[in-house]
Specification:
mainly alpha
Length: 109
């Protein structure tokens, strides 16, 4: 085996070991973080506080109503101005133009 190939093989081996060790370290860090969270119940506590705040303020209901109102307004504007129809017509026209251009290029070859 040539010296160059030996160095490449050694470098690949070193990199492979580093990646494997890095993965093991990450797995260990994730496991420790999960254990810490379970011990101190940080995620559960934060979730409970968010749910409590949501129930007190009614944020989910307000957002749902707000989204419904916005959707109705968008539909109303679309029906009045025919935005969807015009957009579809423009897309179809562009598609036809592309197809015609592609056919012209193909036939000119």
């Amino acid at each position: 085996m040539s010296n160059g190939k030996v160095y490449v093989n050694k470098a690949q081996e070193v990199v492979s070991n580093m990646i494997a060790r890095g993965f093991a370290i990450r797995q260990d860090a994730v496991s420790k973080a999960k254990a810490f969270d379970e011990k101190h119940r940080l995620t559960a506590s934060a979730s409970a506080k968010v749910l409590s705040f949501d129930k007190r303020v009614g944020l989910t209901e307000k957002l749902t109503v707000g989204i419904s109102v916005v959707n109705e307004k968008v539909k109303s504007v679309d029906q009045r101005l025919h935005v969807s129809d015009k957009t579809m017509a423009a897309i179809l026209a562009a598609e036809r133009k592309l197809n015609n251009t592609g056919s012209a290029v193909k036939s000119s070859r």
